[in-house]
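Look at a sample.

——
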Amino acid sequence: MVKCDFSSAGNVSVGSRIYLGCGDHFPQGCPFVKVSNEARKLRAGMKLVSEGCDLLRIISVSWADQVPGAKTWVAEVLDVLPDTGNLNLKIEKIGYSVAYVTLSDKGAAGQREDRGGPLIAEIISDSLPVSAVHGFLIPDEYGDLKSLLMHLAYTSRFDLIITTGGTGVGPRDISPEATLAVIEKRLPGFERAITATGLAKTPHSMISRGVAGTLGDSIIINVPGSPKAVKESLEAIIPALKHAIDKLQGDISDCANIA
């Protein structure tokens, strides 16, 4: 349970976003919900529920500026918030939180439509129970991707992070290098499955260098940039995704029945 004080929330409409924090560190006039220390367990995709009514869904997490040890959560308002007073809200999470990151210089400059990222969201949402999906479109910069992956895994704590683009051998293809710099356990089986699927379609797939691995309790997977390759790659690994995430996050059930 998380105790929430809605006295500073103001008249925030359903569908908008609001800050949550453990202190009064927000700018004067900024709507926010003050939460108890139990909120530290919140992660992307979790909901705060009152008597069966979904009030808030966590979108992202960050550190509050100049407030020692204080985290700030951004939440989507799912229903009309209480006017004032404190409520103890239940934490619920059904399904997996997913972040996709599209690497594209032209896309980040507004010169090209991002088709691969939204396709990831569509395919994963159709294949797995999903609590939240959020997308990012950034240039092909090593530092940008490395820092974003660490933020998504360690701070916002998304269950699954998929990057698209930047897996080839061009001068600006840095997705594998940035991913290798942060992952803790490599998942070569995912990499092989994606490569094998691609090679069944075109020999050009052998130059794709996508990496897969874990960071904290998140799984990170690189897939190529074209929508066709995105679809083929995800179809190859989806059968193992749920099991992999569950095991990474502590599922102790047997992997298979023993005869």
